[in-house]
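Example 3.2
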Amino acid sequence: MKTIIADGGRFLVLIMWLNFAPQSDSCPAKCVCYSEPRPTVACQQQGLFSIPTEIPVRSQRIFLQSNKLTVVRSTSFSSCQNLTVLWLYSNNISHIEAGAFYGLEKLEELDIGDNGNLRTISPTAFRGLTKLHTLHLHRCGLSELPVGVFRGMFSLQYLYLQDNNILTLHDDTFVDLANLTYLYLHNNKIKIVTDNMFRGLINLDRLLLHQNRVIFVQPRAFGDLAKLKSLFLFFNNLTVLTGETMDPLSTLQYLRLNGNQWICDCRARTLWEWFKRFKGSSSELECDVPDFLAGKDLKRLKSEDLEGCVETPQIQTNLYTSKAQSGKFPSTENPQGDTIPRCCLGDNDKSSILSGKSRQITHNPLKEKENMSKTKFKDPERTKNDTQNKQNDGPLGTLSNTLDKPLENMNPNLIDSLESSTTSSKKKKKCSKKPRSDTHCIKGRGATLEVLRFLLIPTIWISLAMS
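Structure, written as C-alpha cells:
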C-alpha cells in the first residue's frame, strides 16, 4: 500500500513539473518561451519575414511585433486555441487571410496597428472573437471599414482607429458594440458625422474625433451617447453646431471644440444657450465671423451679439495630417451648406430659403435686360422710323415687311456702303473685334440688308412676270 502511495505521489509531481517547466525544446527559433505568469512566446524585433510554425499549442500570449511580417494566414494560429493576447503591430502586413483568427474564442487583446500597408480588411476578419475587449487598428492606411466588420464583438471595450485615412463610416458600423467605452477616431479624414454613425454605443465613455475634416454633425448623431463623458472635436472644419445636437450628451464632462471656424450669429444661438446649461469643462470656441467678433469666445458673448445673419463667404478650411498638425489650405466645399438659415431672413422672406451663394441683394434680371436693350443697341436713325418700319421675325431678322417699296425712294448713300459690306472677312472682323461704336456696326448690318433687298426685288418681279 505504501508503495502505491509513493508511486502516486511521484506521478503527481511529474504532472506538475510538466505543466510548469519551460518548454524550450518546442520554442521556435529566434523566440523566447516561458510559462510564468502565462505560457508566452516572445519573438519581437527578430527580423522575421513569416510567422513561426512551431508555436506551442498551449501558448496564451504571442508577441510578434516589430518584425517584417507581410501576411497573416488562416493557419498561422489555428492550433493556439488558448490564445488570449496577440501582438502583431509594427510589421509590414498587407494582407490578412479570411479566417486568420478563426477559432481564437479566448482572445482578449489583438494589436495589428502600425501596419501602414494593410489598407483593407475582410468583413469577416474578426468573426468569432466574442471575448475580444481590445482591438488596435491604428496607422494601418485604412480608407474605409467594410460593412459588418465588428459584427458579434459584444465584449469589445477599446477600439483604436486613429491615424488612418478613413473618409466615412457606414451607418451601424458599431451597432453590436454595446460595451464599447473608448473609441479613437482622431487624425482621419471624416467629413460628415451622420445620424446613425454611432448608433448602438450606449456605454461609450470617450469619443475622440479631433483632427479630422468634419464640416457638419447631423442633428441626431449623438442620440445614443447618453453616457459619454469626453468628446473631442477640436481642429476640424466646423462652423455651426446646434444645441439640439448636443442635448443627448447629458453626462458630458470634457468638451473640446477649439480650432474650428465658428460663425457667431443667429446660427450659433442654440449652441450658446446649450452652454448655459452645460456644467462640464470646455475649451474656447473662437469666432471666425463676423469680423467684429473674430477671436472672441462664443460662450462669453452676449445675447445681442448673436442677432441677425452675417455675410459668410467661403471659408478656408483646415486640413490636419499626422505629419503637419496645422495649416490652412483652400477648400472647394462650402462648410455652411447651400442654404441660408431661417434666422437670417426677414419676417417677409421666411416663406422661402434662397441659395447660400445668393446672400447679397442682386439686380432684377428683367430690369437689366431692359436697360441693355435701351443702351447697347440704340440707333438714332432707326428709332425715328420704328413706328413706320416694323421688323419681322424671319430668318434674316431685319428685312422690311414692305418689299414693294419704290426703288427710287431708297437712300442713295446705301449703295455706297455696298463695298464696305462685301469686303473681306478681315475688315468685318475688325468691326466686330474693335468697333468704333455699337451704332456703327448696326448701321453696317442695316446697309447690307438694304442692299440684299435691292438685289432681291427685281428677281421677284421677274419670277412673277414669267408665271
